[in-house]
Design goal:
The structure holds 2 protein chains of 2 kinds.
Chain A: H1 2-20, E1 40-41, E2 47-49, E3 58-60, E4 65-74, E5 77-82, E6 85-86, H2 90-97, E7 104-113, E8 116-126, E9 134-140, E10 151-156, E11 162-167, E12 176-182, E13 185-193, E14 199-204, E15 207-212, E16 222-227, E17 233-246, E18 253-266, E19 271-273, E20 283-290, E21 296-303, E22 317-324, E23 329-338, H3 340-343, E24 346-352, E25 358-364, E26 377-382, E27 388-390, E28 400-405, E29 411-416, E30 425-430, E31 441-442, H4 450-453, E32 457-464, H5 472-480, E33 484-485, E34 487-488
Parallel strand pairs in A: 2-8, 15-33, 19-34
Antiparallel strand pairs in A: 1-3, 3-6, 4-5, 4-7, 7-8, 9-10, 9-32, 10-11, 12-13, 13-14, 14-15, 16-17, 17-18, 18-19, 20-21, 21-22, 22-23, 24-25, 25-26, 26-27, 28-29, 29-30, 30-31
Chain B: H1 2-10, H2 12-31, H3 35-41, H4 49-55, H5 61-71, H6 79-99, H7 105-121, H8 130-146, H9 152-169, H10 187-201, H11 204-211, H12 218-230, H13 234-237, H14 259-272, H15 275-288, H16 295-308, H17 311-321, H18 328-334, H19 341-352, E1 360-361, H20 366-376, H21 381-393, H22 397-403, H23 412-424, H24 430-435, H25 440-451, H26 460-471
The chains are: A mainly beta, B mainly alpha.
Chain lengths: ~500, ~475
């Protein structure tokens, strides 16, 4: 009888899968495919890539496309891939682009679209500059109200290996905040596990500690921040964050701070350094980061407003203050690097390049949460001469935010909602010594259709020059272990 | 009689199989009709090898794949209960076949019955997890297959091999994610998820019927109000049951609400035209679905983005749905560029509801949101009804009179509120009542109300009077 049941069920299942399955030819999943006669997704046409990047897998994303032949040529060497999905064997790709730094890959494509043969060609330039090989990010739905089953991942961008650093399964479904590297170092980094058993998980020289970065008198635990190059200090914001809705469809959400301040954590002495001149009631201060030499702190500052009513009047400026590495104090005197009022816009997420040359941040019309601001763009200040420019040449049709530098300062990654408008994806961009940029390209995936089915944002992508070495076992161990308390510095 | 007894004993296995199937089927068809429907709404099965490879990997991939495949059919009438009944019955049959190799007929049957009842019951306490049933069935099948070998040594080798394969393909047989080891049916829970399911399907009569027993619950009262509003009867039937202030009129989407409430809250906001709230509600609900891919919420996200004019976002969701068995037709009909004239007109009508002026809010500001929607489209009768009822439930008659346009919207409770307002301002006269379109019969009904209020519990007068009494 059992045999009979299986004899009937299995062919039925197979039939269902075969007959109703694989409608994939009909409708494409590309929402921000390439230009040109043949549309490919992800758009890897005319991009500049590092030699150590994973294969640029893509697929032909046009209605009616049935056949395709794609030929990649560097000098005398050619590789031809047949089919609508151009997905490389990792070894073949590595062998193909090894030693090709500074050269151009010529791509010739021929596809049959609605019975007609269409040809296209494009180039891919292989830069001499390598990129840091590891990228961390949090995978989360674009909710901002609630969370469920969140994970922090580390992806080796030289191949497709993805490691879970921390996830909900090992932390009683706790919320967690994104992982950040200090100076792009794999052995200096931090992330948060939230909730009663949570804490800041600090990875310093590969040694993990769980810290309660909070002390009496602070607005909240620490939120945004960065680790000092020495590893001894961290500069953070403390924020009361409120998610809210826009009334107009398409504008989606706005998140704002009802209060915010800065604080410095001394990891050697377990002290929180809170300075009265920073904790001003009439100012919002947030998104602090260190300069490359660690002698300054850049942060965003705005006049307080009645919120959310006056959200459109919130203009954050970027200021620089001296940082005293002997005691962790931020100076009272600040220099305005970029004025929110003068530019009639608002800045957030400043990050200094590791070579000390550039300061990059996001500029939106107002507020401190530009993730759904389609007008927002990345902005670059040359710290040598103070001159700045909006990076409109690489701007997508949706928000570009949360960038992170590669340790050689020749690449940066940023989260962009371009295309589908809902889910942030990591895009890489090359920058030369003069600040010239190339067309950004999205993080390559093993399966070219990955992004079409992905329903999570790659939140706060952060580059690291080595693996953090952290695993979910570490996360679980840290979650179960007691947290080190911090006290207010005298 | 004796021959019947003999017949039963002789065919006890077959009878047990039939009884098991009928019990399981009957339970899920009639006693627990919404569990499997809800399960389908929280699941998505996409017919694309890329998606399948991307989604089903790691330990337990096969059990997950098979259960997701089966769950897509739960939306069809009677198919869900039949599938579950077949799975559970198969568990019983295979258990019996395994046991009979070692034990006698009756002990085997008894053990099979215990395993059947256990597999059945443990899934009734919460939302049904097909994957668990599939995993148990697979493991039993592997044991059964291992026992087919005649030599004991081969049985042991095959058993070990199958166990490894099982752990890889089916996952651990017992896992905390499978739920509790035992469950007891919760009929009221099925009613609540049934309400949610029927609200999503816009079966308003069923919503009214299902909500009746649970109107003391905020969510049930909210569903009742929404169903009446969608039928255009909010002004007539709002006080057909006891309302507890404005808490059950429109629910907030906020971190302090449960995922279930947040998910339900989005339904009314969606019909009103507040797309940002509806979208966030759907994303929150999506997070709570097993693989964060609930079909119902992806449909809602596609709808929200189509109406909002976020074409690329809508395309992403529609592309996924267009590769499913049951949403394919709808998704293709809604795909930008392939929409029919009727669809385009429907979307246009929905777009007329959208707010034209922006402000930032936390969904507490019900009045401001509804006013914004009415400014954009004064003919949004749903928003108008909700606004008037919001005023009334907050006892704000001055605001109500400001919002109320006589003759524009039907509802005896509005007339009753006007009469109270006139009375408060010492203007209660036949002439003044007539200015608001109130006939003499309503005015005289008010007189009768004061004589015997308990006979008029469905009136605004009764609701208002109770508030006055509470104040005193």
């Amino acid at each position: 009888m059992i045999r009979n049941i299986f004899k009937k069920i299995l062919p039925a299942l197979a039939f269902c899968i075969t007959v109703s399955g694989c409608y994939r030819q009909g409708i494409t999943t590309a929402t921000d495919g390439s230009k040109g006669p043949l549309v490919i997704y992800p758009d890897y046409k005319e991009v500049t890539i590092p030699t150590n990047i994973a294969p640029l897998n893509f697929h032909y994303a046009m209605k009616g496309v049935t056949k395709a032949v794609t030929t990649f040529t560097i000098g005398n060497e050619s590789v031809t891939i047949k089919g609508l999905k151009v997905e490389w064997n990792l070894r073949k790709w590595k062998s193909f682009i090894s030693g090709a730094a500074g050269q151009t890959v010529m791509v010739d494509a021929v596809a049959t679209v609605n019975g007609k043969e269409i040809k296209d060609k494009w180039t891919i330039y292989i830069s001499n500059d390598e990129i840091d090989g590891y990228l961390t990010y949090r995978l989360i739905e674009p909710s901002y109200q609630m969370y469920n089953e969140v994970s922090i991942m580390e992806r080796c961008i030289e191949d497709f290996k993805e490691t879970v650093i921390c996830d909900y399964k090992h932390t009683d479904n706790s919320c967690m905040n994104c992982h950040i590297h200090g100076q792009q170092r794999g052995d200096l980094s931090m992330y948060y596990i939230r909730g009663p058993r949570g804490g800041a998980i600090l990875n310093r020289d590969g040694k993990l500690r769980k810290l309660t970065l909070n002390a009496p008198g602070m607005l909240s635990g620490t939120v945004y921040g960065e680790i000092h190059p020495s590893g001894r200090f961290g500069v953070f914001s403390t924020n009361i964050i409120l998610p809210s809705f826009h009334a107009m469809a398409g504008k989606r959400m706005e998140v704002y701070d009802s209060q915010s301040d800065l604080t410095v954590a001394d990891f050697d002495n377990n002290k929180m350094i809170n300075l009265p001149h920073i904790a001003r009631d009439d100012k919002f201060e947030t998104f602090p980061c260190f300069s490359a030499d660690g002698e300054s702190v850049f942060y965003c500052i705005s006049d307080t407003q009645s919120l959310p009513k006056n959200i459109e009047k919130v203009r954050y400026a970027i200021v620089r203050a001296d940082f005293d590495v002997s005691n962790g104090h931020i100076s009272e005197q600040v220099d305005t690097m970029w004025s929110g009022y003068a530019n009639n816009a608002s800045a957030c997420h400043p990050k200094a390049s590791p070579d000390g040359r550039w300061l990059m941040f996001t500029v939106a019309d107002y507020g401190t949460f530009p993730l759904f601001h389609t007008e927002c763009t990345l902005y670059l200040i040359d710290l040598k001469n103070g001159q700045g420019k909006a990076l409109t040449g690489i701007k997508g049709d949706k928000s570009d935010t949360y960038h992170s530098w590669s340790s050689n300062s020749r690449w940066f990654v940023f989260a962009s909602k371009r295309g589908d408008g809902q889910y942030g994806k990591p895009y890489f961009c090359h920058i030369d010594e003069n600040g010239n940029l190339t067309k950004p390209f999205v993080l390559p995936q093993k399966r070219s259709r990955f992004y079409g089915y992905n329903l999570k944002s790659f939140n706060v992508p952060d580059l690291g020059n080595a693996s953090t070495g952290m695993t979910i076992r570490d996360a679980h161990r840290m979650f179960k272990s007691p947290s080190e308390k911090f006290t207010q510095a005298e | 009689m004796k021959s019947l007894k003999e017949y039963i004993i002789r065919n006890i296995s077959r009878i047990a199989v039939i009884m098991s199937f009928l019990t399981a089927y009957g339970f899920f068809q009639f006693a627990y009709p919404y569990h499997l429907i809800r399960r389908e709404q929280m699941n998505l099965f996409i017919y694309d090898w890329d998606y399948i490879r991307q989604t089903y990997h790691g330990t337990g991939w096969l059990a997950s794949f098979v259960s997701d495949f089966l769950e897509q059919f739960f939306q069809l009438p009677a198919i869900g209960p039949i599938i579950i009944a077949l799975l559970l019955t198969a568990i019983g049959i295979i258990t019996d076949r395994i046991c009979i190799k070692f034990l006698g007929k009756w002990p085997s049957l008894a053990i099979a019955a215990v395993i059947f009842v256990w597999s059945f019951m443990r899934e009734t306490g919460n939302l049904y997890i097909t994957r668990y049933t599939v995993a148990i069935l697979f493991y039993l099948s592997l044991i059964s297959a291992a026992l087919l070998f005649k030599r004991n040594s081969l049985k042991i080798i095959a058993g070990a091999l199958f166990l490894i394969i099982g752990i890889w393909a089916i996952g651990a047989p017992f896992h905390k994610h499978y739920g509790k080891p035992w469950g007891t049916p919760r009929i009221e829970y099925d009613r609540v998820i049934g309400l949610d399911a029927e609200v999503a399907r816009e079966h308003w009569d069923k919503v009214l019927k299902l909500s009746k027993k649970d109107l003391h619950m905020v969510e049930a009262s909210y569903c009742y109000n929404l169903a009446q509003a969608m039928k255009g009867n909010l002004g007539q039937k709002l006080f057909n049951h006891s309302q507890n202030g404005d808490a059950t009129l429109l629910l907030r989407v906020a971190p302090d609400q449960t995922i279930f409430t947040n998910s339900l809250a989005g339904e009314a906001w969606f019909h009103l035209g507040a797309m940002t709230i509806a979208e966030q509600s759907a994303i929150i609900a999506l997070q709570a679905s097993p693989k964060h891919t609930g079909a119902r919420y992806i449909v809602r996200l596609a709808q929200v983005n189509l109406i909002s004019g976020e074409t690329a976002t809508a395309q992403k969701y529609l592309s996924m749905l267009s590769k499913t068995l049951f949403y394919r037709k709808w998704a293709k009909s809604m795909m930008p560029g392939s929409q029919s004239e009727t669809t385009r007109i429907q979307l246009m009508e929905e777009r007329f509801k959208l707010a034209r002026t922006d402000f930032v809010h936390h969904t507490y500001e019900t009045r401001a949101i509804l006013t914004g929607l009415l400014e954009a489209n004064p003919n949004n009768m749903l928003a108008r009804n909700y606004l008037l009822c919001y005023d009334l439930m907050r006892y704000d008659l001055e605001q109500f009179i400001e919002d109320y346009t006589p003759g524009m919207i039907k509802g005896h409770i509005y007339h009753e509120a006007v009469l109270i307002w006139l009375s408060q301002h010492h203007n209660l006269s036949e002439q003044n009542a007539a200015r608001f379109g109130i006939d003499e019969a309503t005015a005289s009904r008010m007189q009768r109300f004061f004589r015997n209020p308990d006979n008029y519990k469905d009136t605004y007068w009764y609701y208002y009077m109770n508030a006055l009494e509470e104040d005193q």
